[in-house]
Fold:
Amino acid sequence: MLKGMIVKNISNSYIVKVKNDFYDCKARGKFRNEGLTPLVGDKVLIDEQNNYILDIFDRQNELVRPSISNVDASIIVTSVKKPDLSLYLLDKLITSIVLKKVEPIICFTKIDLLNKKELKDLKKIKKYYQKIGYKVYTNIQYKKMLKYLKNKTVVLAGQTGAGKSSLLNLISPSLNLKTDEISDALNRGKHTTRHTEFYWLKNVLIADTPGFSALDLKEFNPEQIRDSFVEFSKYNCEFKNCMHLKEKNCEVKKAVSKNQILKSRYENYCNFIK
Structure:
């Protein structure tokens, strides 16, 4: 028996890395009976003779979208054009990632498609997210981003067509990962990445993942969602457990009206709670 890590998953096949060797394994039936699905990132015990995963060690964390475990950070790849910038999806990803005890890193892509006004607006948005404590980069700043993420285990997250595979190709052209055109009619991309797989690039372990267009927060309660909006915590409302919705003398709502809190962030928060 050997200890290793799942580095790739296609259908019911799990590639497990043990030191410098790779084993193509199947999961034992007991996991199905226990309602447990092996994930890329899992530390596992395998039967190398029969190529079976025997056990899954306790997870440090686990993300649902994308489906992966034991990561230090998630790069939220966010297209600003084709598909258009969605701060709603960005904030939803931040919330889901933060509440899973994973550090969110924002990476804006396709900056070259913006006109001067759009670029000016994006700079304001970028500055705001940096002010509230998040690391924010553009895809052309990938070297700076990788320097920050050195020796960390990272997963790419983002909607279909946001540029996740393109970002990896930029970091390491030899990967030559498949990319595709964006549908102008639907304002979204086509799925080109159909499985989750780790790559060792520039001293960072990075997982490429399939894109998605929908993400829900049903597993979290309203208080958790509220607390994931880190900038709210600096305001002392009249009520200790203020939800910043209809309460009187809410300092967060006052901050929104004074443009101290990004209006889209607050509106997205209200929608998440609803």
